Amino acid sequence: APDISVEKVQGHLTELQKIAEANGGNRAHGEPGYKASVTYLQEKLEAAGFTTQVQEFTEGGATGYNLVADLPGGDENNVLMAGGHLDSVTEGPGINDNGTGSATLLETALAAADSGYKPTKHLRFAWWGAEELGLVGSTEYVKSLSDDDKSKINSYLNFDMTGSPNPGYFVYDSANEPEGSADVQKTLTGFLDEGGVEAEATDINGRSDHAAFSEAGIPNGGIFTGAEEIKTEAQAQKWGGEAGKAFDPCYHADCDTTENVDEKALDVNADAIAKSVWKLSE
Ligand code: PHE
Ligand code: CA
Ligand code: ZN
Ligand code: ZN
Ligand code: ZN
């Protein structure tokens, strides 16, 4: 897999923040900043050669949108999916939550297209709407799949917060999710290790968009750098940063801006995510 350029990922974060600033300060479901975020990603993916679809749904009286992008080629009966939510809360621009996961996935997708990668499996990326209102977009997507469609998804990787400013390095504990994949967990953990960080398995308890896939029997996993929880002394020894302080003190707040991202965490996770997508799709 190519090394993912953290500068390019940060460039997308800057654009997402500009989108929020031009649209009342957020990129939330039902607000113009959300739709503008979808358009920003869709144009880049189409230009790179992806086939994109925007799936609409209704939540709270407003239209929501999932963006789904397929890399042409590979075995359509054996699909590797990777996704994360693109919506923010109404309180702020949502740059760590979840501009980071969204921008990392975008760069990974663009790197796959630009490098001419021809995976054995079919690669599909997704950016979910209305996660912050209760995992709505991803749930709508899974609901729209037939049993046959579901059986063709080999596994789903989820990335929700990958650059917390006081970062933890967490991989979803497969033993704690209905269809948690030990293989996905091992792959993500192994590539984080290659990047120089010792990850911890953590119980996500269905708190992000992998949940609908898990409930539908689709193997899954993901990476997370921590939200409102407090970093322990042992974690600060291992990962740096500040013990006794939240992994993301700006979680769901107006200060979740481009200042609220740890560059090293963003880089290490982006590289581990790309390596995992390549490994799990070849
Ligand atoms: N889903 C939470 C949010 O978007 C963040 C989160 C991700 C929490 C993964 C726990 C685990 O606000
Ligand atoms: Ca890199
Ligand atoms: Zn959130
Ligand atoms: Zn989130
Ligand atoms: Zn979430």
UniProtKB/TrEMBL annotation:
One of its GO terms (molecular function) is aminopeptidase activity. It comes from the Bacteria. It is found in: Secreted. The keyword Disulfide bond applies. Its cofactor is Zn(2+). Keywords: Disulfide bond, Hydrolase, Metal-binding, Protease, Secreted, Signal, Zinc. GO terms for cellular component: extracellular region. Its main location: secreted. GO terms for biological process: proteolysis. The keyword Secreted applies. Pfam families: Peptidase_M28. Belongs to the peptidase M28 family. M28A subfamily. PANTHER family: METALLOPEPTIDASE M28 FAMILY MEMBER (PTHR12147), PEPTIDASE M28 DOMAIN-CONTAINING PROTEIN (PTHR12147:SF26). Monomer. This is M28 family peptidase. It comes from Streptomyces daliensis.
